[in-house]
Design a protein that fits this description.
The complex is a heterodimer of chains A (about 375) and B (about 525). Chain A has 14 helices and 2 strands; from the N terminus they run ααααββαααααααααα. Chain A is mainly α. Chain A has a single domain (about 65-180, about 190-345), classed as ABC transporter involved in vitamin B12 uptake, BtuC. Chain A has a two-stranded antiparallel ribbon. In chain A, strand 1 (about 105-110) and strand 2 (about 115) form a beta hairpin. In chain A, helix 5 runs antiparallel to helix 11 (about 240-270) and helix 12 (about 280-290) packs parallel to helix 14. Chain A is globular, with a radius of gyration of 26 Å. Chain B folds into 2 domains: about 10-245, P-loop containing nucleotide triphosphate hydrolases (Rossmann fold), CATH 3.40.50; about 265-495, P-loop containing nucleotide triphosphate hydrolases (Rossmann fold, 3-Layer(aba) Sandwich). In chain B, strands 6-9-10-3-11-12 form a 6-stranded mixed β-sheet, with helices on both faces. A 6-stranded mixed β-sheet of chain B has the order 18-21-22-15-23-24, with helices on both faces. The chains are: A mainly alpha (about 375), B alpha/beta (about 525). Chains A and B meet through helix 9, helix 10 and helix 14 of A and strand 2, strand 12, helix 10, helix 11 and strand 20 of B.
Chain lengths: ~375, ~525
């Protein structure tokens, strides 16, 4: 037998040096905070181009427009962070408005031949529950029946829209301000009220943002959302109830959509079954512009809010400076794509940085012998 | 027994002084290796000895840092797998690389479809050619069937047919039997003999040494990147191979460790687990074992022995088909993973990227993920308690990172693994279960992980870890249990056993095969 001498093995005893903390440059800050930077740039550009863009009253009006998309985006953020998507929110907006409309117009209970006029708070709760129920169906399809989120919520998008059309028979419910004699007034407060001079919609957006922000950053559930979207197998093995987490994310998304539907119906004091078409796309765009990853695991409330403001201010600003509605669409599309391209760029930058750090912390590669030592 | 140099005329491929350096590591050091027509050469060596690197170089996947390849005596270079294939060298990887949704013929010609011109595929010609290939292999597989409808053994044959559809002179088989049953192995061996009779040279890599003894004509043993021995298989036996693989210092005993096992903690009784990958097969056929307090139990076995499936059944990822798993006398069967973690069993999974880490979360958040309930204060997480616990976990498991906020991706493999171990330890387990805890990590981190395991046992916990490295199980276990093909085939005391005994036990229980090697003492 031929036997060659075995080289002595150089064992990697040199331990890695501590990885120094990096200083962040201005460029990096601009990339990291790109959504916010984009918003500032938009405000400056439109402020220069339009005389009244920066009027406080105009800013409030635009923010009111932002509010319902922001509320949708907050729910969408939860779903996208679990690596899902919810295409049904636009239809849920229409459905919840119609449910509220039919109840405010009088809830005919044919069996007893009576018509009930529930109080506004009942109407609100039932409408929100309908939204959450749509979300629960989405969740059920995704978790129990393993339907891909895109398909499950695409299906629910049609089902919920159809339900809205069925309930209203395709018609619009007008005059939702209620009747003092029936004791169901006050619905218009959601859309037109101004506590402390600020529209109710903005207050609601603020409350939702704070609650969901706390949920995502301060609770166990929030951590579970990130873990489920980041690596569901690892999360499962760590004891995270991944299916329950997904289910709740879709339910919250449905509830947010119903809230947006109520605000819009209240603003218009009428509820049309077609309301909310393509809203899901604006919500997804807001979340993505805010830095969330459609692959899951990444996304913040701050980002989603800024994303909603970017889209809202961009739309309103383009109208104010008189850009044609055709060009508005082109520009909006480009902004969304640009945002995602920057995101990819940032991911690559991060990966390169991580690889460099890993190489640094692991300069001595393993010697090819397994000479583990037992320490007692 | 020198490697018969007299028959050099039929050498198909030869490697001369091939060296491969990755980063600063010598994976291969001046390896000479030759493959002769019509013969099966078994390439032997422990994990990390350089077998796969050498095969990757011969198959064009990797380029040598130094050295020369020859094809039929003329200098040759294989720039890519496709290049190697066109020159007659094909490789069948350990994992099947088939598209289950396509037909057998489609898979065989994938990427080099027979065309009619204009992008149209000549399906009848492909079907005809595939049919002839299976005739050559003497295996009647219908080329029109979908791959997903075939048994695993047949899928393996499709891989072989694919490798043969070029003018193949050399066929490299990397662990071809790891997923096969005993009778399927017989079929594979018959096909191998067919091929060698037709003049094809086979390079055969397997951890199942008795298979190598049966099928191979020559043996070449690698250790630490060098060829340490080459011989005709007729002249050697199992114990010779094992001695060459592990080195000269066999028989050396390890310092006896004073340990005092306490009461039984984890009791596994007659457990049967279905194979999650292949419906209708059992990964664990009937296993009973006990882990006591203060004890490190090492589960040793080859790939496919059922270790991972058993440990995942303990952790709650795989359901047990029969049998019972008890912790402190209370059954865990039917309990959710979170309930088992609370009861005190948590698993460090085999594949940390797939099952252990959430790359989007920081080091600290990964560490606390399984123990979040501990930090609840009302509905909110108490981030200060969490941060304190994370800090102490990071120093306990000696994670080297820029801080708790560091990205998982910025850590080396060893430090990532320590994060996974730390995550499990943060759940305050009674029994720590680790599956291949040292896979792909450096020597320093290995030592740290073994030290952690020993510390856990000293603190009264039970430790159950699985490994396919015989050195590790001898170094780190208080008691060794050997598994093979879903069964426990032996229990050993690391103070009185040898590597040879363990390796023989793990490979011996192969059914349907007779070993022609001697029985190692």
């Amino acid at each position: 037998m031929t036997t060659t001498a075995k080289d002595p093995v150089e064992t990697g005893q040199g331990r890695s040096p501590q990885i120094p903390k990096r200083k962040r440059g201005v460029g990096e800050f601009l990339i990291d905070q790109r959504a916010f930077v984009a918003l500032i740039v938009l405000v400056i550009i439109f402020g220069l181009l339009s005389d009244n863009f920066l009027d406080p009253s105009n800013l409030v009006t635009m923010t009111r427009h932002v509010a319902y998309n922001a509320i949708l985006a907050l729910g969408m953020l939860l779903v996208i962070t679990t690596a899902g998507i919810d295409l049904s929110v636009g239809s849920t907006v229409g459905l919840s408005g119609v449910v509220a409309g039919t109840m405010l117009q009088g809830w005919g209970i044919s069996l007893f031949d009576v018509t009930a006029y529930p109080a506004v708070w009942v109407v609100v709760i039932v409408s929100l529950a309908v939204g959450a129920a749509v979300g629960a169906l989405n969740g059920l399809l995704v978790t129990r029946f393993n339907v891909a989120p895109f398909i499950a919520t695409l299906g629910m998008m049609y089902v919920a829209r159809g339900a809205a059309l069925l309930i209203s028979d395709g018609a619009t419910f007008p005059r939702l301000q209620g009747d003092p004699e029936l004791g169901n007034t006050g619905f218009s407060f959601l859309g037109t009220g101004r506590p402390l001079g600020i529209p109710t919609a903005i207050w609601i957006m603020g409350v939702f943002a704070i609650v969901i922000g706390l949920l995502m950053t301060r609770t166990r559930f929030g951590r579970w959302v990130y873990a489920t979207g980041g690596n569901d197998r690892a999360a499962d093995l760590a004891g995270v109830p991944v299916n329950k987490v997904r289910m709740r994310a879709y339910m919250i998304s449905g509830l947010c959509a119903a809230m947006a539907g109520l605000i819009i119906a209240s603003e218009l004091t009428s509820a049309a079954p077609q309301t909310g078409q393509t809203f899901e796309l604006n919500a997804i765009a807001a979340v993505v512009i805010g830095g969330a990853s459609l692959a899951g695991g990444r996304g913040t409330v701050k980002g989603a809010l800024i994303g909603a403001f970017v889209i809202g201010f961009l739309s309103d600003g383009l109208v104010m400076v008189g850009v044609s509605s055709f060009w508005q669409m082109v520009i909006k599309g480009l902004v969304i794509v640009l945002a995602v391209m920057l995101d990819r760029g940032q991911e690559k930058l991060k990966e390169a940085r991580a690889a460099a750090a890993a190489a640094q912390s692991n300069q001595q590669e393993p010697a090819p012998s397994s000479s583990g030592t037992r320490s007692t | 027994m020198s490697a018969a140099p007299e028959v050099s005329s039929d050498v198909v491929v030869r490697a001369l002084g091939v060296t491969k350096i990755y980063g600063g590591t010598h994976a291969l050091r001046g390896v000479d290796f030759e493959v002769r027509a019509g013969r099966v050469v078994a390439l032997l060596g422990e994990n990390g000895a350089g077998k796969s690197t050498l095969m990757k170089i011969l198959a064009g996947v990797e380029q040598p840092t130094a050295g020369q390849l020859e094809l039929y005596g003329r200098p040759a270079s294989f720039d890519s797998p496709a290049d190697a294939l066109s020159q007659g060298v094909a490789i069948i990887h350990q994992e099947l690389n088939l598209c289950p949704n396509l037909s057998v013929a489609d898979n065989i010609f994938l990427g080099r479809e027979r065309g009619r011109g204009g992008g149209f595929v000549d399906y009848s010609e492909q079907s005809e050619l595939a049919h002839r290939l299976f005739e050559r292999l003497e295996e009647p597989i219908d080329p029109g069937r979908l791959v997903e409808d075939l048994r695993l053994g047949q899928q393996q044959l499709v891989e072989i047919a694919r490798a043969l559809s070029e003018q193949t002179r050399v066929l490299i088989m990397d662990e071809p039997t790891s997923a096969l049953s005993g009778s399927e192995v017989e079929v594979l061996f018959r096909v191998i003999r067919e091929l060698t009779a037709q003049g094809v040279a086979i390079i055969y890599i397997s951890h199942h040494l008795d298979e190598c003894l049966e099928i191979a004509d020559d043996a070449v043993v690698l250790r630490d990147g060098s060829v340490v021995a080459a011989a005709s298989m007729a002249d050697v036996d199992l114990s010779w191979i094992v001695q060459q693989m592990v080195g000269r210092d066999e028989g050396e005993l390890y310092a006896p460790l004073a340990f005092d096992p306490g009461v039984p903690l984890l009791e596994i009784r007659d457990v049967v687990v279905a194979d999650p990958e292949n419906a209708g097969r059992l990964a664990v056929r009937d296993v009973s074992l006990t882990v006591h307090e203060n004890e490190v139990v090492g589960l040793y076995g080859l790939m496919g022995a059922g270790r991972t499936e058993l440990l995942e059944a303990v952790a709650g990822r795989n359901a047990v088909a029969a049998g019972d798993i008890r912790l402190d006398g209370a059954s865990l069967v039917g309990k959710r993973i979170s309930e088992r973690i609370r009861a005190g069993v948590a698993l460090v999974p085999e594949d940390r990227h797939r099952d252990g880490l959430v790359p989007a979360l920081s080091v600290g958040r990964n560490l606390s993920l399984a123990a979040l309930s501990r930090f609840l204060k009302g509905v909110f997480l108490d981030r200060r308690t969490e941060a304190t616990a994370v800090q102490s976990a990071m120093s306990d498991v000696r994670v080297k990172a820029a801080g708790a906020h560091a990205e998982i991706g910025s850590l080396s493999g060893g430090n990532q693994q320590k994060v996974v171990v730390g995550k499990v330890l943060l759940t305050s387990p009674r029994v720590v279960v680790l599956d291949e805890p040292t896979r792909g990590i450096d020597v320093g981190a290995k030592a740290d992980i073994f030290a952690l395991m020993a510390d856990q046992a000293k603190d009264g916990r039970g430790v159950l870890f699985a490994t396919s490295e015989v050195e590790e199980v001898l170094h780190a276990a208080d008691r060794i249990i050997v598994m093979s093909r879903g069964l426990v085939v032996g229990e050993f005391d690391p103070r009185t056993t040898t590597r040879e005994e363990l390796m023989a036990a793990s490979g011996e229980a192969l059914e349907g095969l007779t070993t022609n090697g001697g029985d190692p003492a």
